[in-house]
Amino acid sequence: MIEPLIRQLSQRDQLTDDERKQLAAAFTGRRVVSAGQEIVSDGSRPLFSQLLVSGIAGRQKILADGSRQITAIHVPGDFMDLHGFLLKRLAHGVIAISTCTLLEVTHETLRRITETSPHLTRMLWLDTCQWRRKTRPLGGAKVGHLGRQAGNGGRA
Description:
By secondary structure, the protein is α+β, with helices and mostly antiparallel strands.
């Protein structure tokens, strides 16, 4: 189920067989989240990070007037909150735009990876840095259209 992540990381550098096995063994939890359900709460202190393996999710901030601002879209292969491992408290929430399947890796497991696999660690952080660099606020109409497409199997 981690093939989307492997494909994404392999676009930047080659992963060894050992690194692939280490990634596959790292994920100990799996859950399915329905469209509209909160995946990660703004301000939470998660003990694990989540990989999106199917569906579409959105990073969000709740604004002072109570409205929601979608700041990024997550697609399969995205670690939606890997940076929570270092930050300890998230400054955003994540919501499912369509039904999503998630895999979980504990922060303790991530700590072990950082101590034993420097190349894999660099690959994961490079992926996170590249992803965060592309994050931009999205307009509500565009997100609404995307949500309709996701609910219709990609058809407008």
